[in-house]
Write a structure and sequence with these properties.
Layout: E1 6-7, H1 14-24, E2 30-36, H2 49-59, E3 62-68, H3 70-75, H4 80-97, E4 106-108, E5 111-119, H5 133-145, E6 147-148, E7 154-164, H6 168-181, E8 187-191
Parallel strand pairs: 1-2, 2-3, 3-5, 5-7, 7-8
Antiparallel strand pairs: 4-5, 6-7
Helix pairs in contact: 4-5, 5-6
Length: 234
């Protein structure tokens, strides 16, 4: 089992960090925070550069930007153009959080890269009801096209999909995306909500399927959907 990440709606602080460290038995490898659409969530739930930049730097902890525009996915799932423009807005938001300078990110060849996970859960705590293949295709295309910073350097998104283990629509969308367009997200991040605060002893990690690492973790509810790629974040 690899080292799990954590993520939070609220800005990460030392209390959260210590709780996760105690629960996991080691310091978290990285932490997911939301970017872009403050209309879907309260503004306090999005990344706060003024306080969090120094926190991540001080802990030498990796940041996983999570793209938040779940209302668009729910309400306009066939809109390729919207998905693409949302990806551009996501990249702009994360670039602005780090002084509009692409050199703050990982360089490969002539381009700079940031891992970006698209939150594919619905709003209002419910499950998605419609396959969103075209929206996801647009978002992936926008991430691969990238944006340029003030010095003309290109920042691209190493794109992934983030969803709860039982959100079967998300996993079926990934299958349809590959079958229709030959595209896949670069990685898959599956979430499972556990609140360890005040729990003694800390709760156990959710079970991981041993029969097939290429399926959604909730194999019964999702009828053993084979998503065709391994889960790399948990």
């Amino acid at each position: 089992m690899g080292t799990p990440y954590a993520d939070s709606y609220s800005p990460v602080n030392d209390t959260m960090y210590q709780q996760v460290t105690k629960w996991q038995g080691h310091t978290p490898y990285g932490w997911g925070r939301y970017f872009y659409d403050t209309s879907s969530l309260g503004s306090n739930q999005f990344y706060h550069p003024a306080t969090e930049n120094s926190f991540f730097y001080g802990k030498t902890m990796r940041l996983l930007p999570i793209a938040e525009q779940s209302a668009h996915i729910q309400d306009d799932p066939t809109n390729y153009t919207l998905g693409k423009s949302d990806a551009t807005s996501n990249l702009k938001a994360v670039l602005q959080a780090f002084n509009n300078d692409a050199v703050n990110f990982f360089k490969s060849g002539s381009d700079y890269w940031v891992a970006f996970a698209l939150d594919c859960e619905s709003t209002n705590q419910g499950n998605l009801t419609t396959i969103f293949t075209d929206y996801l295709r647009g978002w992936i295309t926008g991430m691969e096209d990238g944006i340029t910073d003030s010095s003309g350097r290109t920042l691209k998104g190493w794109h992934g999909v983030y969803s709860a283990q039982g959100d079967c629509i998300t996993w079926q969308t990934i299958v349809d995306l590959y079958n229709q367009y030959g595209l896949r997200p670069k990685f898959v991040a599956m979430s499972s909500y556990i609140d360890p605060v005040g729990t003694t002893p800390p709760p156990a990690f959710p079970s991981w399927p041993t029969d097939n690492p290429y399926t959604t973790t909730d194999t019964v509810a999702c009828n053993h959907i084979s998503i065709g790629q391994s889960t790399v974040l948990w």
